[in-house]
What does this fold into?
Amino acid sequence: MDTLNRVFHLEDAHTTVKRELIAALTTFVSLSYILFVNPNILHAAGIDKGAAFTVTAVATAVGCFLMGFIANYPVALAPTLGSAAFFAYNVVIGMHINWQTALAAVLVASFLFILITVLKLRELVVNAIPADMKYAISAGIGLFIAFIGLQNGKLIVNNSSSLVGLGSFNNSQVWITLFGLILTIILMAARVPGSIFIGMIITAIFGIIIGQIPMPHSIISGAPSMAPIFGHAAFHIADINTPQLFMVVLTFLLVTFFDTAGTLIGMSQQAGMVDKNGKIPGIGRAFLSDSLAMVEGALMGTAPLGTSVESSAGIAMGGRTGLTAIFVGIFFLISMIFSPLLAVIPTTVTAPALVIVGVLMAGNLKYINWNHFEVALPAFLTVVGMPLTYSISDGLALGMIAYPITMIAARRHKEVSPMMYVLFFIFIIFFLITNMK
It folds into this structure.
């Protein structure tokens, strides 16, 4: 106990090992759905689901260990759904880039992430992007994730006359999704800890009962091998040799940058780690931790890792130090023995989780200043652009291009930072490269 106190400064944080353990268990239960959702998303890109399950568990555990030991923060690092969706649906499926090259793009973006962290450029970029646009990016990703969830659950389907339409209630998959969505909504509204995870388990049982999901052959087994995807990122870095792939790297960098920075700051505020001057002690070490986590995640074979919003559940239970993150990592390592459950967690079971996470991320809409058109328009284009173009990068580009234009028209050009003008031209080039047919 004395050793743990010295390493994690438990007494200074007014916490105990027991409290940190309970906080970690709460965070793990809240976040454990990622073990099943992330492999399903990556499988859409052609990645072996079993290998993705093991990589998700191991990469998350390592990320948590990095955050715990380096930064001593009570937050978990795990693959983010926004980055995973961009990886699978935009880069691999949309741009017809093989997953090995896409992982290489993630690795290159990770190295750049470390570089800008060490050079303290993250703060420069964060300060350059208006708060309204940051909130719009997060909310837009939320809508995009929710849209994917509705599609995976067959509630939204292709429609030849109106592009999309409501799914058929004659489809049993729709009823599984509806059951899971309604159940999870009730659990969330009742503030039940681990609502998303509990909802998935009960929904899977419902699917088994009605005969639409097969029974698992076992509950516990050895973890699937990571060999099918481990290390491919490093071997395909040379593939990053076209303007299109350079823009993919940049987009990975931007999407992960805004997602992790905003979430990490929010978690720090919730944990009471902000000093009287409004600064967060040790935030640089926390940024370095998630940068290193991106690298190890890419090398193992998953989409970028980032600060998990589910960490707020553990913080609410009293988690205040990196010991919480360490315990979360241990729980994820233990969870690898439950890989047979992948067979009973199809996309219709994980679909409600995507919708709920989308709702939570869309909450940032309330912080956007809708009363000023010059701010509202680019924010709106960012938010609706992501789901309507089925592309996080396209939605991001729409907003970043529109913002300087509307601000200049409103005679507020002095409020636009030089970095925003740089991004303006970068995303114009991005559109020219990726949308010239």
